[in-house]
Design brief:
Number of helices: 8
Distance between the termini: 22 Å
Largest sheet: none
Order of helices and strands: HHHHHHHH
Shape: globular
Helix content: 55-70%
Structural class: mainly alpha
């Protein structure tokens, strides 16, 4: 569910559409599972929506629309056009058929909570991000 759908690949075909896709990629990333692998709405989903709406309303009342707008703008910039957000694309771009995810072992891991240890994360999702380099050290033949 992390990789773009075939439909996204067919629609996003030129520079302008690719730019818009990158800007809105957090929304694609968040909403894609509802189309690719839908699940029934549960109690915790409803509680989550209520909590989010309640927080947004409270923020709006306490600090105004500009504060809420600032958070939305931050989400767009931090998850889309920001250079560090490039990991969303780099981790899931298919270079070799059959391999959907890739890892990155460069210096950005120091400031991005080891998000580059992506294959390790998918293999061991319950291992904390601080321990993912250890997974790679323990099994270098796989990473």
């Amino acid at each position: 569910m992390d990789i773009p759908t075939v439909l996204e690949g067919r629609i996003v075909v030129n520079t302008i559409l690719k730019l818009l896709w990158v800007i809105f990629q957090l929304f694609f990333y968040a909403l894609r599972p509802t189309f690719v692998l839908p699940k029934p709405i549960g109690t915790w989903d409803i509680i989550n929506v209520i909590a989010v709406v309640a927080f947004d309303v409270a923020l709006w009342r306490a600090a105004g629309g500009a504060a809420l707008g600032w958070l939305v703008l931050g989400a767009f910039l931090g998850g889309g056009l920001h250079p560090v957000a490039g990991h969303f694309i780099a981790e899931h771009y298919v270079f070799r058929p059959g391999q959907e995810t890739y890892s990155y072992y460069g210096p950005l891991n120091c400031v991005a909570y080891n998000v580059g240890y992506h294959n390790e994360h998918h293999d061991f999702p319950r291992v904390p991000d601080s321990r993912l380099p250890e997974v790679r050290r323990l099994a270098p033949e796989f990473y």
